Structures
1.
Amino acid sequence: MILVKSLAGKPWVWSFLGALLVWLATIAFTGGYGAGGMVTAALSLAVFTVIVGVGQMFVITLGPGNVDLSLPANIGLASAVAMKVMAGSDSMIVVGLLAALACGAAIGAVNYLLIWALRIPPIIATLSASFIIQSIDISYGRGLQIKPPPGFADFTNWQILGVPVLALLTVLFTIGAAIALQRMIYGRSVLAIGQNIRAAWLAGVNVGRIRFLTYTLSGALGGIDGALLAGYFRGANVDIGNEYLLASIAVVVIGGTSVAGGKANVPGVWGAALFLVLLLTMLNTFGVSAGVRLLLTGLIIVGVITAAGGEKAVR
């Protein structure tokens, strides 16, 4: 009973528990074959969801209605920008990464300016921006055949004792994000705005500046994610970020962050990302068709969210 109460108070734990159960079910089906390789692959792929998931988490924590739907288009454009700037040369890796970061940050900043200037809901502003960004990406990246520099491609796939180096670096990044959320003025301001935006304003929080920084942060993380994806998959693609629209939101909610705002959990993003990747692996291993796979994925995600006992969006 004490354990159940403890888990109820930490809904993000369910994401890790779900990932573990899915992994156990898969290795039971395969007779234990490929268990270690499955974990390595899950860590490699979960990294990309975690990076954009953290950015989405900060945005959603701002309160009801705040969400960044421009991430897939952002990722696609940033991947093309990074590959064009790097031009296959190892000497241009840092410059390419900075270009992708700047591209994503600019998109995030424009997203908030649309919200602020036009007084439209974030869901409408970011969705509208995504169509514009995608159009630019199609024009800019059309026929792009540039491969990532060999050193960059090797880096995104580098492993130490079976553990992806990119996953280790992302763990350090998420630790920093957790510290920023709980210990720094910026993070506490985000939580305060999500809990009660008027009270935060009366307490002296610069609401506009914090929201601007948060959307810019989400965009910047989408940009760097696009560059890393291009390196990992050996090239840029307009559709390279498509799966991260729902995934970035799902890992936030499954991970224990409240869609009502004011409450966030960084470790839960990791657990939820691993859960989603391992879930897809399990369904593929079972030979489930694409249509049924999507249906089961949706039902299982709803089940995990329900089990986590997350707060309702309406307070």
2.
Amino acid sequence: MNPTFGSILISVLAGAVQSGTILLLPTLGEVLTERSGVLNLGLEGLMLIGAFFGFLGAMKTGNPYVGLLLGMAAAAVAATIHAFICVTLRGNQTVTGLALTIFGTGLTSFYGDNWVSQRLTTVIQPMAIPGLSRIPFVGPILFSQDLIVYAGYILVALFWFLLFKTKVGVNLRAVGENAKAADAMGVNVVGTRYFWTIVGGALAGAGGAYITCCIHPYWLNGITSGMGWIAVALVVFAMWNPFNALVGAFLFGSIEALQLQLQAAGTYINSALLSMLPYLATFVVIIVATLIVRVRHVGTPKELGIPYAREEK
């Protein structure tokens, strides 16, 4: 392999892992939320809330990890509102999710105007894993990243194990498939849906905060640029499986990193066209995922988006 080409390829793939982590966190959260039967189309709004409050927290404290936690907490609060409307009030989940996106966009634009273009002086730094980071080719790509990327690796394995190998996962999937039967078996349907909706919101906030506390350490209104909508599409691509979510997120991360590398190299391709690549890929992913779901007979959780009330017969 040509040394120059090799270094460029490693740089692109390492960037793909970082960009993919932005998508991985909200996608994992939405997988869990939808497994419980709650549809949250407000990921874009939650990511914006996480990004803004993460930036604000890091700016005020000088600690990007505090900012990340604050972004997660703010998004979790917003997700609690979504859970209250959808689970307790049994509101329309599609409309509520869209309203959450509008709310997050408006809130962060209103309060973020005074912070536009201001930059953080301290950001989340890479921490190479001794030994593993020295593995040829793979090491610099996967094991010379930051703690949030490593946390993403761990969460994928942890959530897969939880979903498919534990009683908690069985109860979670049961609530999303047949809430009435789960309730009859003693599972707290309302509590389960609340908990995983809030967890999903916190992870969406983490994805947003990761943007401003690490990738782009400044504030711009709408800084997530539709990443939340891509995460929603990735849940379908992943077929509600955490490991598939990892593949999909890093695939999109590769597209994002490639288009940025091409723009930096001064390619003759129009920059606007390059910026469209991740969103064009979203359509392709949805089509492919739909076909795979049909062939493999893997469906959405049967009660996704359907409110549940114990008194209903």
3.
Amino acid sequence: MLAFLIKRSANAIFVMLSVSFIAFMIFRFVGDPVELMLNEQATQEQRDELRNRLGLDEPFIVQFGTFVSNAAQGDFGISFRNQQDVLGMIAERFPATFELVIVATLISLVAGIPMGVITAIRRQTWYAEAMQFTSIIGVSLPSFVVGIGLILIFSVWLGWMPAFGRGETVDIGWWSTGLLTHSGRMSIILPALSLSLFQITLVMRLVRAEMLEVLRSDFIKFARARGIPARAIHFRHALRNCLMPVVTMTAMQIGGLIAFALVTETVFQWPGMGLLFIQAVTFVDVPIMAAYLCIVALIFVLLNTLVDITYAMIDPRLRGAEK
């Protein structure tokens, strides 16, 4: 088990270094931040002084090594545009993104699991076919199209919900939440629905596939032969055996939702990490862009490593497969 943990940790470190290196290489070609930070009347001396102060006159390898060394200590530098601590800016935006992802995940589970069960046990009904067709639409439509459609229907036409923003928030220590206020709860509904639509489709299809397989198993046949009611068979016995893959997939998808929430946050002007990243790209704010990608990559790596370790603890054969 120790060798397994060491190998997984080494893989995680390698992935983080690779992501950091690739991000730094890409950001070298997005523009010169000095040109955006200074006006057109700035002299060459002022430009050189700012470039030296930001460390942009150093070779690429030196800049990358300095970034990795500081990032390992939790220091991602200073924002070129705002002249503020990058980690503090991301920490300020993280609660908004985290709440959006958690609400979207809950919506996907609450809607996707019953839909998956219904489409499995009522395969020939019209409403099961309608759910299957709707799931195809959910997979096909881009999230920004879904977001714009939700805004058009529920904000512009019906006027039921706000079209943008997070609403009123409440500070609990360093954490800010909008779930404790009415405007905050109303503001999170549309972006969470937009973000969860693809996830609902994944959960529904996974539950349906697992349910169909479980319903063909021998213990389900024995349960029917004993006269156990169909409702108990479907929801007490079959569904329980379907939930482990769903939980695993949901945990893995949380990292993806955090990473790809930037489109939803941009459409709804949700003040999260994704919107901060888009603004950083606009102004070539390299420290924020690099820090965002590293933090998202770290979330992915931690979730994957946690799942691998959990599987290895449950099934010791996986540890031997690593040798």
4.
Amino acid sequence: MIVVKVGGSAGIDYDAVCADLAARWKTGERLILVHGGSGETNRVAEALGHPPKFVTSPSGYTSRFTDRQTLEIFEMVYCGKINKGIVERLQRLGVNAVGLSGLDGRIFEGRHKDSVRAVENGKVKVLRGDHTGTVERVNTGLIDLLLNAGYLPVLTPPAASYEGVAINVDGDRAAAALAVALKADALLLLSNVPGLLRHYPDETSLIRAIPAADVESYLEFAQDRMKKKVLGAAEAVQGGVKRVIFGDARAGLPITAALEGAGTVVS
């Protein structure tokens, strides 16, 4: 079982990811794809006159402040344009993919955080009206139902709160929770860089290997959204996933290359 998470930033080659995924699926591998959509969500939000607002927590993590209108734009892009675009690519490649959000069937479930602490101008403020959370439960029964019937699940945030409210969750950490719940052999976190870089954005400074017991000490090298990927990797290996690989989704055979050791391997 391999869980593949592909990001949503500029430069990602979804055609390459889907072609590689389809080829491996046809050999009998069990795969699940989780995707993001941040870059396109930002573009659409700007076009709709509701530009994105990003906040930085006191511990240094950056995330999207998700009020109700932002959540609706988020769903429109993640669950609509990006998800169905990936499903269509896979269908054209002969793979019977099913696209679902974490809200559907409560695939991803967690606690709704209505407020978030953010650092603004050096001061910590509490912002209310947020629709975010963290995945705490995964509906593995529904995933197994799809896989056993021959469908490839294509999953995306949002998740469901315990009250049934849609919540924005980090896709990398959701993929990590999924990999742990399914006892996956590997979790691939594919983005628009070759892996974790010691001196971002210098791609020659790629860190090739990280010991599983020492993942969090590498957070100092992670910039911006890569911090959540490293955190997700730590959660995955602590939960029993054998390998986590930060790989490059920009060209070639992204999944195969990552499984062959290209990128940053956490094990």
